[in-house]
Amino acid sequence: MKITIKTYNILIVRITALFILLLLLGNTLHAQKKNSKYPDGVEIKKGMFFTTLSFSMSARDAENEQQLLNYYIDQKRSNLQVRLDPGYIIKKNLGVGVGFMYGYSKNYNTQKGTDGSIIDNKTYARNFNIRPFVKNFLPIGKSNKFYIIIPTELQFGYGTEIKESVSNGQLTRTYNTKYSYGIEMRPGLLAFIVENFGFEVNVGAFGLSSSVEKITTTGQPDTKVVSNDLDLKISLLQLSLGFCVYF
Q: In the chain, fewer beta carbons within 10 Å around the N or the C end?
């Protein structure tokens, strides 16, 4: 799938239209339930289902651009990340579920070296993740509009990357596979804007992860990298926003 600036703008328009449609649907449901105990919020109770969808995408086209270390004659870059978190409330203010993530990225560019050489690079990467989780809900006030949420999840991931580089007629191909697993807490805030429909904001925090990476490059010995990471700080760089439905 090729994402150009034009395609990216079309996707944004369609996503905005979908968002407006969901808002209208939520307002309709809200109007039909004016007599409920929590007309502006949702009481998180046993037997409910929920799902959260979050995504990010970007696209970039550039020509004759001087960056810090490289001069790009041409560059086309795009990426997409989608996450779906369906779940079930097993008791008041406590839910369980399984998250699914998929992402891919493309980067095609032509660089001009300091010696005048021309280098063509093509990179394609994709990743899959399965993340079983337990989710705690801490209500803020009595309206059930706002909740502090604390999802704790196990992480199992698999990713691949292929990079081809052509310089002076010589092709160098690098193939990378990565297996990862870990555990992470992602505290955040849930806000219901209309009944049964709301938004979640999460940040990455308190994570323990391990990964095994295998790299094969043309004309070079295979490389294996084993990494173990412990993160005990909140990272605003891992801020994510998603919309959710509870029913």
A: N
Least confident of 17-26, 66-75, 189-198: 17-26
Query: What's the CATH code, domain 5-246?
Result: 2.40.160.20
Question: Beta partners for 126?
Answer: 104, 160
Q: Which residues contact 47 (CB under 8 A, 6 or more apart)?
A: 89
Alpha carbons 40 and 44: distance in angstroms, whole number: 13
Beta-sheet pairing, 94-112 with 71-91: antiparallel
- The helix/strand/coil state of 93 is coil
Q: How is residue 174 written in tokens?
A: 């690098």
Q: What DSSP character marks residue 187?
A: -
Q: Which two tokens stand for residue 62?
A: 């550039």
Predicted confidence (pLDDT) per residue in 210-234, tens digit:
999 999 998 899 999 999 988 877 6
